[in-house]
């Protein structure tokens, strides 16, 4: 196994982290892990000539075209993991090189995308061993992709797919885990169809645009875990969900009052029916950890944080070796978007989300310039944080 960390002092956005002349010397390598610090990394074509590789984990890796490899054609029979491939082209040549792939994570740049047909995502169905797929894209249509029937776990983020197209996913015969994050689906209403999601055990819906969800216990006959997070617009959890015989837990975190009330009603109904095994986790309390280097400002910080909506508990740790700045950024979705692009690793040391506000604890001096480069939209919020910091400190 080789671990490498991207040199943050370099200014090139795209960089060959391992030279083509070095890779052939690693012919017996099984795991390649590169901490790219959120930067895009171009992988040399020699990667296709390393038959022992089992796992490739590089944040925002650009996979080369196997046709560019000048050596002998090698089938990576042992390769099981590819993560996270940037603008992944699933061409016939790529699929033929990775026949036993089990885990794939890919993301598509929100800007400068080609037509979806260019990425050949229908060929995903040729990956007959693929069990887990994580897919991040903007304004994506399921007509552009064909999922393999072997898929057991699917995570979608930012896709903006209409809820009516959920039947395509529901028809996957072996799907057990489905996680929808950050507007993976868009629209006000979801009406599942009976006969789908026959093996689904875990359903997580997070930060998605959904108001009305109509569902019966027959729509998810084997569901064990339901988790809802940051669902501010959803009116209620369908009461029939509680009647699913296999259901073990319902988790509600930072959702609307109406969702929490419907979860309470389901809990009371199930308990009155003698169902004591169904567990409920309803959480609307946010814990905020703040590191300060000034003993005299602790009370001011605590009072200021507690006065903000959604914050009920504050735990303050004072460490003289660290100087931190506490502030608030109002746009959760924009923060999430920047975090997905890798900025968290260079500028955001801690992110705590509340019902309406995102709190970001920033390294006050070291990363000031980098924080300003993230987006002009944050300059005003950043200046406000600095003023808050000065007020808190003695």
TrEMBL record:
One annotated GO molecular function: metal ion binding
GO CC aspect terms: membrane
Compartment annotation: Membrane
Chief subcellular location: membrane
Source organism superkingdom: Eukaryota
Membrane-spanning ranges: none
GO terms (BP aspect): plant-type hypersensitive response
Residue intervals of the HMA domain: 283-346
Membrane topology type: Peripheral membrane protein
The protein, known as: Late blight resistance protein R1-A
Organism: Sesamum latifolium
């Amino acid at each position: 196994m080789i671990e490498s960390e991207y040199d943050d002092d370099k200014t090139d956005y795209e960089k060959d982290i391992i030279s083509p002349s070095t890779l052939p010397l690693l012919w017996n390598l099984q795991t390649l892990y590169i901490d790219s610090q959120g930067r895009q990394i171009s992988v040399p074509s020699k990667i296709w000539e390393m038959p022992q590789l089992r796992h490739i984990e590089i944040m925002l890796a650009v996979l080369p075209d196997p046709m560019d490899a000048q050596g002998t054609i090698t089938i990576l029979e042992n390769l099981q993991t590819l993560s996270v491939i940037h603008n992944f082209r699933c061409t016939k040549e790529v699929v033929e090189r990775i026949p036993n792939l089990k885990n794939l994570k890919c993301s598509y740049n929100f800007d400068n995308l080609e037509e979806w047909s260019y990425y050949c995502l229908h060929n995903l169905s040729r990956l007959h061993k693929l069990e887990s797929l994580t897919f991040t894209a903007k304004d994506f249509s399921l007509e552009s992709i064909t999922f393999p029937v072997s898929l057991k776990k699917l995570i979608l983020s930012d896709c903006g797919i209409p809820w009516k197209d959920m039947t395509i996913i529901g028809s996957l015969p072996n799907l057990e885990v489905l996680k929808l994050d950050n507007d993976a689906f868009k629209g006000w209403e979801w009406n599942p169809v009976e006969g789908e999601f026959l093996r689904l055990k875990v359903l997580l819906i997070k930060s998605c645009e959904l108001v009305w969800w109509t569902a019966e216990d027959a729509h998810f006959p084997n569901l064990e875990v339901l988790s809802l997070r940051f669902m501010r617009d959803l009116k209620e959890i369908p009461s029939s969900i509680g009647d699913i015989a296999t259901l073990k837990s319902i988790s509600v975190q930072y959702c609307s009052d109406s969702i929490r009330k419907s979860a309470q009603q389901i809990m009371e109904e199930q308990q009155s029916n003698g169902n004591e095994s169904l567990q409920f986790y309803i959480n609307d309390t946010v814990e905020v950890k703040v590191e300060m280097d000034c003993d005299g400002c602790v009370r001011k910080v605590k009072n200021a944080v507690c006065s903000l909506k959604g914050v009920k508990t504050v735990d303050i740790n004072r460490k003289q070796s660290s100087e931190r700045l506490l502030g608030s950024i109002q746009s959760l979705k924009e923060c999430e978007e920047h975090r997905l692009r890798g900025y968290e690793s260079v500028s955001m040391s801690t992110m705590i989300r509340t019902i309406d506000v995102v709190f970001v604890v920033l390294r006050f001096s070291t990363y000031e310039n980098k924080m300003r480069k993230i987006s002009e939209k944050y300059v005003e919020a950043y200046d406000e944080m600095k003023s808050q910091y000065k007020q808190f400190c003695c």
